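F.,

This is the one I mentioned.
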């Protein structure tokens, strides 16, 4: 393996491990990368280009769309559609799934589910945002129009998932079910280069991430776990530090590298949870498990085992270092 490994080289090298691979996945990934580079460019000049602020519309969940939400959605949608690499997509910013009608698209075997811009309320204040994506093999026959059932698959069926973080540097982190690798964007070359091979969640950590302002709305088990995090016990690195950016991608990325736990529980305001199972929960859970961490929706229930019922379904979400999730489960069951 070369010492300076670009993402495209890495994908080609690993494609050779799968003799039946047709190159379709590599083409899909190349389309995702192109879109990521365009969104990265726009995010970086957002303050100058009059693309911060609300777009004046709401998304299917009734949330105000930011101009960059709309732009990122269009960029990913057109990159994936135009290249004929997927038969359909689902996006946080679209009411229904999108069926690509071109004959090349109809013969594609993959679907992509995405949160084109995660943490969009942070754009205007120059805080890290991200893109989250999830890839499945379609269930209906290739060559026929893609159907709802192709998108409503449990996370366990993901072929690949990942995220791009537009942060102090831009990174793409992804997994095809064989570990997790991180690539940092080199803007002068226009290339993603392998910088974080075989990423592993530390077994434990000293950070908890939750919107604690909503404490009074949380279930009792979560409230008790928060108190546990704040207790003094040097043997378990407590009290933990509280770190909450408000961009799932950024909070998750920090905890993946340093160890930690991310919590977005159900609450009296969001009885089903706030985050979306298909394009936030599942892809992050796939990465978490592939990196040796854990991802649950409730005690003993893995995110990846949930059978989705609808495209924009919400879920409670707990992601993090394995030992920290196991401790949380004790409080959720008590
Ligand atoms: P999005 O910008 O895609 O709508 O996602 C926002 C999500 C997630 O990124 C973040 O962790 C969470 O919402 C923050 O929610 P609160 O403001 O309720 O803490
Ligand atoms: Mn999001
Ligand atoms: Mn979003």
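My design for it:
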């Amino acid at each position: 393996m070369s010492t300076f490994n670009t993402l495209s080289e890495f994908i080609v090298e690993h494609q050779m491990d799968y003799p039946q691979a047709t190159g379709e996945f590599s083409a899909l990934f190349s389309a995702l990368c192109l879109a990521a580079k365009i969104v990265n460019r726009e995010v970086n000049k957002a303050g100058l280009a009059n693309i911060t602020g609300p777009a004046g519309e709401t998304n299917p969940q009734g949330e105000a769309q930011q101009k960059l939400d709309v732009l990122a959605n269009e960029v990913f949608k057109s990159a994936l559609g135009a290249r004929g690499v997927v038969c359909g997509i689902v996006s946080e910013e679209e009411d229904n799934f999108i069926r690509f009608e071109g004959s090349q698209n109809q013969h594609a075997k993959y679907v992509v589910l995405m949160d084109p811009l995660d943490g969009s309320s942070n754009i205007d204040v120059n805080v890290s945002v991200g893109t989250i994506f999830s890839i499945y093999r379609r269930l209906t026959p290739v060559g026929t129009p893609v159907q709802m059932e192709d998108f409503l698959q449990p996370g366990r069926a993901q072929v690949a998932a990942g995220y791009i973080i537009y942060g102090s540097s831009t990174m793409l982190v992804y997994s095809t079910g064989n570990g997790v690798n991180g690539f940092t964007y080199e803007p002068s070359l226009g290339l993603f280069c392998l910088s974080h091979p075989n990423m592993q969640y530390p077994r434990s950590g000293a950070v908890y991430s939750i919107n604690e302002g909503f404490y009074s709305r949380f279930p009792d088990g979560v409230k008790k776990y928060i108190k546990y995090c704040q207790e003094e016990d040097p043997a378990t690195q407590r009290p933990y530090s509280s770190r909450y950016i408000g961009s799932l991608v950024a909070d998750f990325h920090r905890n993946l590298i340093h160890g930690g736990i991310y919590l977005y529980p159900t609450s009296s305001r969001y009885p089903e949870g706030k985050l979306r199972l298909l394009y936030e929960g599942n892809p992050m859970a796939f990465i978490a498990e592939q990196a040796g961490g854990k991802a649950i929706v409730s005690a003993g229930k893995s995110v990846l085992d949930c059978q989705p019922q609808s495209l924009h379904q919400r879920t409670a979400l707990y992601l993090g270092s394995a030992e920290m999730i196991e401790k949380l489960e004790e409080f959720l069951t008590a």
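The chain has two domains: 7-196, 207-333.

Talk soon.
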